[in-house]
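Hi all, posting the design record for the shared folder.

TITLE: backbone redesign
STEP: 1 of 1
STRUCTURE INPUT:
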């Protein structure tokens, strides 16, 4: 069972509890500028081995360097400090080191299977430095193999401890704050309507959505410390929600938008969500949730209330106004026909199976036609 703890001041006690002496520290490019850097550097361990040789969209070859470093250094605990990529890299390293399959556990065909792993053999602590992905509380990781995105899933890579330290958000660049927050909001909404939802996931999703909606302006525009604390907690709830359900169509639509137009993940996801929700409202007869169309529409109403609206149509309008206030604009294409072909072919059908309304090839293209501007 994962422990979720508020405050980096608890970290020395956690390391003592795990018996850590040699710490494997996975960090991203933000680490030298973090206000918690001195606290991490002062941790009472015998040695720290740092790994940071990876990009924001980590490649398999980069992860392999970290695997070899952990093996050769024989560290006895992992601490990941950073955004979703740093935490995902640490997850992939742990899986490859502890799995009998080794590095092969990260690539097809094994990445598509449940690989045995005794996760407790290497204690794992994650400290997120953004309020967005919720990666600190999921058993999923993303990396790229031969140019293709791989989603690694294994119960053993869920961090044993997630430490939420909202002070790290104080100096986060404004655009990054906006994008990561919208990722968390979309995760909450998508998990809520996902066909895999249950009572637990829906409660996490509600807390994620309501927590962000109540405080997003103070967090973004006032840089409020209390709002940051609440938004970071909401993002963690979003991570816990999708850890149960996985994501749906807005996420499936987003990945190629990111690679084609260079938009951060949260920005790309948020572009598709209101269009896809509107489409689902117009085609409830295409519902594929086994609980039925009436159930799905009731969920849309519940989400709407969490967004502060009386109806789903009004909730979509709330979401669109939020995007306008945040100045998160749609991409403009110089070769729209080509881009629409690429985008339409890119959507992962596995994620579409989680979506409550069926989307065929024609509807996928028509949705991209709305998202991508001339």
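Okay, here is what came back for every position:
SEQUENCE:
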């Amino acid at each position: 069972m994962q422990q979720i703890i508020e405050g980096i001041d608890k970290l020395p006690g956690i390391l003592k509890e795990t018996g850590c002496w040699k710490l494997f520290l996975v960090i991203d490019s933000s680490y030298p500028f973090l206000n918690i850097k001195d606290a991490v550097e002062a941790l009472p361990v015998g040695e720290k081995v740092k790994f940071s040789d990876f990009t924001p969209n980590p490649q398999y070859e980069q992860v392999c360097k970290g695997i070899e470093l952990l093996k050769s250094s024989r560290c006895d605990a992992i601490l990941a400090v950073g955004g979703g990529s740093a935490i995902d890299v640490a997850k992939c390293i742990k899986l490859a080191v502890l799995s009998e399959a080794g590095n092969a556990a990260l690539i097809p065909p094994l990445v598509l299977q449940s690989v045995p792993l005794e996760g407790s053999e290497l204690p794992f602590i994650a400290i997120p430095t953004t309020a967005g992905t919720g990666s600190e509380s999921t058993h999923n990781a993303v990396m790229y193999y031969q140019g293709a995105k791989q989603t690694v899933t294994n119960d053993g890579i869920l961090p044993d401890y997630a430490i939420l330290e909202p002070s790290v958000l104080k100096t986060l660049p404004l655009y990054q704050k906006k994008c990561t927050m919208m990722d968390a909001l979309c995760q909450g909404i998508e998990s809520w309507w996902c066909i895999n939802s249950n009572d637990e996931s829906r409660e996490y999703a509600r807390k994620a959505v309501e927590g962000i909606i109540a405080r997003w302006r103070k967090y973004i525009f006032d840089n409020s410390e209390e709002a940051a604390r609440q938004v970071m907690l909401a993002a963690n709830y979003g991570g816990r929600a999708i850890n149960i359900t996985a994501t749906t169509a807005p996420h499936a639509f987003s990945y190629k938008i990111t690679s084609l137009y260079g938009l951060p993940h949260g920005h790309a996801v948020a572009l598709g969500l209101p269009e896809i929700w509107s489409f689902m409202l117009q085609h409830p007869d295409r519902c594929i949730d086994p609980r039925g169309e009436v159930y799905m529409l009731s969920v849309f109403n519940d989400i709407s209330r969490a967004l502060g609206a009386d109806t789903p149509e009004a909730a979509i309008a709330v979401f669109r106004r939020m995007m306008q206030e945040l100045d998160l604009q749609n991409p403009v294409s110089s070769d729209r026909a080509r881009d629409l072909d690429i985008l339409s072919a890119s959507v992962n059908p596995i994620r579409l199976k989680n979506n409550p309304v069926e989307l065929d090839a024609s509807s996928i293209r028509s949705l991209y036609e709305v998202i991508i501007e001339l």
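COMMENT: The two ends are 49 Å apart (CA to CA).
Let me know if anyone wants the other runs.
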